[in-house]
Structures are given as C-alpha cells and as structure tokens.
Specification:
By secondary structure, the protein is α/β, with parallel strands linked by helices. The chain has eleven helices and eight strands. Helix 2 links the parallel strand 5 and strand 6.
Length: 305
C-alpha cells in the first residue's frame, strides 16, 4: 500500500519579492527535508515535481526562484546574481524552520546548492544533478558536442539567421538537452512558465554559449569546504557531462558519480524509476564518510565564524 502524500502551497517574502513553494509530506515521512532547486536559469519547479514520491520518507519542497513561475517578477537588474539566489534558499530554509536539510540542485540549481553548502553546515546530503558549477568545464563540453555535429550544422549553430540553425538546434537539443524527455508534461509546464528575461540575463541566448552573468562562474574552489555526503548524477550525453562531474567530484572526498546511460540533461524524467531508487538509497545512507572529516568541518566552522 502506497503512503498518503499531502501537498500544500506557500510563499515567503524574499529580498526583492514573494517566492512561491510547494511542500509534499506524508504522516510517516520523518526524514531530513529535501529541497529541490531547479535550473534554467529562469526555468520553474514543474520539471522536478515528478520526484514528489520521495515525500513518503521525508518532506520534499519545490520552489520557483524569484523572476519565474508563480514567484514575483521584478526587474532582472534587482536580483540576477548568484549571491541573491543563495540567500533566497537560506530564506526558504529559515521560513520553514528546518534545522537540517538535504539539497538537490539540477543544472544551474547545482551552483546555488554548492554555494550554499560551502557556506552553511546544515546540509546532510547533497545531490548535484546534471550540474553546472564551472563555466569553463561547461564550455569545454559545448565545444566537444558541437564538434560531433555534421560540419554543415556546426557552422549553423553560431548564427541564428543561418537557414540550417533550426535543424542544428533541434539535433543538439535532442541529443544533449531534452533526450527522451522532450514531450514530458512537466518539461512543457516549466517551459511555458519560465522567464526568458532571467535566462538571457543569467545565461544568454541559447545552450550553445554562455554570455550572461554566469559566463565566468566557477565554484570549484569552494567544493572542498562541503561537508555533506555528496552524489553527482549525469546523463550519458548530458550538457552537465559525466566527465565534468568526475573532475568536480575530486574536490569533495568520498563523493560519488553515477552516469545514467542513454540519457541527456533530464535523466530523472528519462529513467524516473531508476532515478528515484538511486535517490532513496543515497538519502537513506547516514554513515559519515571522509567528506565529513574533521578538516572539512574545521574549514567550514572558520568560514562561518
């Protein structure tokens, strides 16, 4: 018999506007709360919401970052920077009165999760899903994937006005972004309620290059400060590639990398049952590994002092 799962909506006042969230919970779900941090930038929580079944074991919270979805949409000049979104996550945790949390950051959401976990010590488990945490590594993968396109289409991706741009766009996104999740209802909902203004300001015009606020973003130097038990996940052909995950994971002792075969950037939708099983196993493991060693804890303490 499946557990009863309840859902409630809420909002809290952030620095520049009201932020919408959903809380899934069950009577017997007493585990450490899990907060899902969506990507984009400018996407919404909907495409992560199919993971709500994890609420049978713990509260699961989804939210729309300021500027998209059901949250307020002030001028992008007021909030489109990494520090704002890290503080927004802290405000959500404080609003819900959580003393300890698990975090799942997908794509750009991983940058928020990593920056938060490096600064605060109240994260027990950390999941970097198809992560963006290094513009340099991400750009390396973009160039590698573009080189794998037919020569005619390699040229087309550089120019919106090229008559072959649409074909190149479709092929690249099918291989490395949407994969088999292209027509998933949750992806459609997130796309329809996303913010093009936030995406263009933070990222750029498309997935072929980073030209916005994040064009020089790097948080790899902060990863050694993370004390949470950490899991990296990536699709085999992901824009947040397995190769990048392996490089980043070396900064976090005892972190683990799992590659999901035949998947692109949304393996939690392409192989949902396998992905949920993976998360349940990871989140139920409370053993303290090397990633929570005394040296990392001391660094975290000094940084927060």
């Amino acid at each position: 018999m499946s557990a009863q799962i309840n859902c409630e909506e809420g909002e809290f006042q952030g620095g520049q506007g009201s932020v919408y969230f959903l809380k899934y919970s069950s009577p017997d779900g007493n585990g450490t709360p899990l907060i899902m941090i969506h990507g984009g930038p400018g996407f919404t929580h909907h495409y992560l919401e199919p993971l709500y079944s994890l609420a049978s074991e713990r509260p699961v919270i989804f939210y729309d970052q300021l500027g998209c979805g059901k949250s307020d949409r002030p001028s992008v000049d007021e909030f489109c920077n990494v520090n704002y979104f890290v503080n927004e996550l802290r405000q959500l945790i404080d609003h819900l009165s959580f003393s300890e949390v698990c975090l799942l950051g997908h794509s750009w959401g991983s940058a928020i999760a990593a920056s938060y976990a490096a600064k605060y010590s109240n994260v027990s488990h950390l999941i970097f899903a198809s992560p963006f945490m290094s513009a340099r590594l991400w750009n390396d993968d973009i160039q590698r994937y573009k080189k794998a396109l037919p020569s005619r289409l390699r040229r087309a991706v550089e120019d919106f006005d090229d008559p072959d741009f649409q074909e190149a766009f479709n092929l690249y996104y099918a291989r490395h972004v949407y994969g088999k999740a292209a027509y998933d209802r949750s992806i459609v909902l997130s796309t329809d309620t996303a913010s093009p203004e936030v995406y263009r300001t933070m990222w750029g015009q498309n997935e072929f290059s980073i030209t916005g606020v994040l064009k020089d973003f790097e948080c790899s130097d902060e990863l050694s400060l993370i004390t949470a038990k950490t899991l990296f996940t990536a699709g085999e052909k992901d824009t947040g590639s397995p190769k990048a995950c392996r490089i980043l994971s070396k900064q976090i002792p005892q972190s683990k990398v799992v590659t999901l075969r035949d998947c692109a950037h949304f393996p939690h939708l392409e192989k949902k049952e396998e992905y949920v099983k993976l998360l349940r196993s990871f989140l139920s493991d409370n053993k303290v590994g090397e990633s929570q060693n005394i040296f990392a804890r001391c660094l975290s303490f000094l940084k927060n002092s």
